[in-house]
Design brief:
The structure is a single chain. The chain has helices spanning 3-53, 88-96, 141-159, 197-204, 210-216, and strands spanning 57-58, 66-70, 74-83, 103-110, 115-122, 171-178, 191-196, 218-221. It is an alpha+beta fold.
Length: 222
Amino acid sequence: MKTGSRLLLFGALVLAAAVVLPRLGEAVEKGADEKLRKQISIMEKILDEALVDSENALVKSTHPTRGIYLDGFGFLFTMELGIVDDQFRWQSLSKLLDIGEGYAITREEKQKEGETVITIKKKKGEKEGEKPAGEKKTVDESARWELVKKELVEVVRDYGDTIARAKPDEWFTIFATPLMGSWGGGKTERLVIRVQMREITDYNEGKLSAQDFEKRVRISES
């Protein structure tokens, strides 16, 4: 091959690289962003399931969690939740759904359709002084609130590494606001639970015990 032809070919390759490589970089970046979005979406579903199945937390829908990635900070998941108690189970939930008191509400998962079915039935009359069948031991609101926080920390601990693209120094943060009014008799209107991703990874790799992990989680209420 002649020198002139070689120079022309080299110039063409440089020009092609200048055009293709930026586009390739954009494609890789978009692909990485898409994977990150999918991982956040999976984590949303994990938190949703934990809240819907909880005996202590009350949520208004089957998808109460919303997640976002903040560059330079980490992952933020927001949610709105209430506290379940013996009275709240029926009376307050009935008010929340605008169906009035005196109704029984049951939840059923349909595996084939992948749907959650809520059944609302009018409760049968009970004799005065008679306790409802299967009545459970009462748990006060403050104790149940502690259980809600414990459940959220455990979900973050056990499943936070679902976000495989997270950096060790980034934060996993839950920001929760009350479903109705406030928690704890009007004392708490926001809850923030956060922990660095390295702590989640260390726990799931067996480098941290559950007790040590809890010590590294930051919980603030205001």
